[in-house]
Design a protein that fits this description.
The complex is a heterodimer of chains A (193) and B (248).
Chain A: H1 2-18, H2 21-31, H3 57-75, H4 84-111, H5 122-153, H6 158-179
Helix pairs in contact in A: 5-6
Chain B: E1 11-18, E2 21-26, H1 27-47, H2 56-76, H3 84-101, H4 113-135, H5 153-197, H6 201-206, H7 208-244
Antiparallel strand pairs in B: 1-2
Helix pairs in contact in B: 1-2, 1-3, 2-3, 2-7, 3-7, 4-5, 4-7, 5-7
Classes of the chains: A mainly alpha (193), B mainly alpha (248).
């Protein structure tokens, strides 16, 4: 019987702690008055109007109101006319909505133009990765051919000089093709087909 | 500790002897066979069910097919689809081999230039052979740009030829250099961790930095492994386009 006693003691301690005025006030605020159980709007309404579905309560209420207004307007149009103040408030709300939508659309449009490829386009990264090696490859080919010609024809150093320069030009051409500055070579010029 | 040690070729067993040279089954060959088995298992295993609503494996196979098919169609047109088996095989092989190499204690096949050069030469010779077969001698017009004054035409033609010859070099060196450099960097930074750890408690504290960098570099290498396979495939498509489309 030791353990239940200890448990009981602990429970009592916690109860006495609960009795502090700050805790009580907090309890009252957080739980609300116990008598009025209608703490949330639409608690007993249809499911679609549940508070969990719509966080912004003003939207729910405005929507319900305007729907009701519409229905009443259609039902007995002659009896009741829209108050001028209501109309002004509605138009003001429309204007504010339009402004907010426009701002949203503009901020989206500044992100990306429709024709542009996305920023994380793999082909763009691939093109960037290609650039570095293309120049080196051209120079290497020029140097290689120059060295071979020097050895075979015995014209050292002229083969190396000329072909290194030509290879450099070929490398620059490669890089410009990758970067899109020069159009890729075609077998036939356009229009000769 | 030696960062180059991981690229060493080891003979696993000797297959045969040709003219005094042993033809051995190396660790490189072993990892190529493993890559082949992985690709075959993925592709055959994924397509056996042929579900209308694809499962996970089937989705991977379909996504890789769509990816390469779209790349090929964009670069070489739908006529280039006859080279789809070549491009798809190259892409899947390089991708799988790169990814296998990222697993610790494995061997990276593409970090040897002999492999990448042979792959690049395969593409290069395919372009030349198919280009001449399809276009005949008109294939030479690839080197003669139109609208160039006759005075500098020989020079420009020569530069074009050099540019064409440099293709397999840039094609192979890019893949080889990226994989080699990436793995050496990973090894060096991972080596720092154990070296600092030998210095005692404060060494281990300091080792957090290279360890974090190693993790970050592994992620980068994962990206590079995919991108290099993609670059190799897209360049293959671009080069094939020269052979396929005379007028574009």
């Amino acid at each position: 019987m030791l353990i239940p006693t200890a448990h009981h003691d602990a429970f009592r301690v916690s109860r006495t702690l609960d009795k502090s005025p700050i805790q009580k006030a907090f309890q009252l605020v957080s739980q609300g008055p116990a008598v009025l159980d209608l703490t949330r709007p639409g608690q007993y309404g249809p499911r679609g109007l549940g508070a969990a579905d719509c966080r912004d309560l003003s939207v729910v209420f405005a929507g319900v109101e305007s729907m009701a207004d519409d229905a009443r307007d259609q039902h007995d149009k002659d009896d009741r006319k829209l108050q001028p103040t209501d109309e002004a408030a509605l138009s003001a709300r429309f204007q504010r909505l339009g402004e907010r939508l426009g701002k949203l659309n503009r901020s989206r449009a500044s992100d990306r133009q429709p024709g542009e490829p996305p920023a994380s386009d793999p082909s763009a990264i691939a093109r960037g990765l290609r650039l570095s090696v293309e120049l080196v490859a051209g120079v290497l080919v020029g140097a290689g051919i120059g060295w071979l010609l020097d050895r075979w024809l015995g014209i050292s150093p002229w083969g190396m000089i000329v072909f290194l320069l030509l290879g450099f030009a070929a490398g620059v051409l490669n890089v410009m093709r990758v970067a899109g500055v020069v159009q890729p070579n075609k077998l036939d010029p356009p229009g000769s087909k | 500790m030696d960062p180059i040690h991981q690229f060493e070729i080891k003979n696993l067993f000797v297959l045969t002897r040709i003219g005094g040279h042993e033809i051995a089954f190396t660790n490189s060959a072993l990892y190529m066979v493993i890559a082949l088995a992985v690709i075959s298992a993925l592709m055959i295993g994924a397509t056996t069910s042929r579900a209308l609503v694809p499962g996970r494996m089937q989705s991977i196979a379909e996504i890789s097919y769509e990816f390469i098919a779209n790349t090929l169609r964009q670069s070489a047109g739908s006529e280039g689809m006859k080279f789809f088996p070549l491009v798809f095989t190259l892409f899947m092989f390089i991708l799988t081999v790169n990814m296998l190499g990222l697993i610790p204690y494995t061997f990276t096949v593409t970090s040897h230039i002999i492999i990448t050069v042979s792959l690049a030469l395969l593409v290069f010779l395919t372009v030349i052979v198919y280009g001449f077969k399809k276009n005949g001698l008109r294939f030479f017009k690839l080197f003669v740009p139109s609208g160039i004054p006759i005075v500098i035409l020989p020079l420009v033609t020569f530069i074009e030829v050099l540019s064409f010859i440099s293709r397999p070099i840039s094609h192979s060196v890019r893949l080889f250099a990226n994989m080699l450099a990436g793995h050496i960097t990973l090894k060096v930074f991972a080596g720092f961790v154990t070296m600092l750890g030998a210095a005692g408690f404060f060494g281990w504290m300091g080792a957090v930095l290279p360890l974090g960098l190693t993790v970050a570099l592994t992620a980068l290498e994962l990206l590079v492994a995919f991108l290099q396979a993609y670059v190799f495939a897209i360049l293959t498509c671009i080069y094939l386009n020269d052979a396929i489309h005379p007028g574009h």
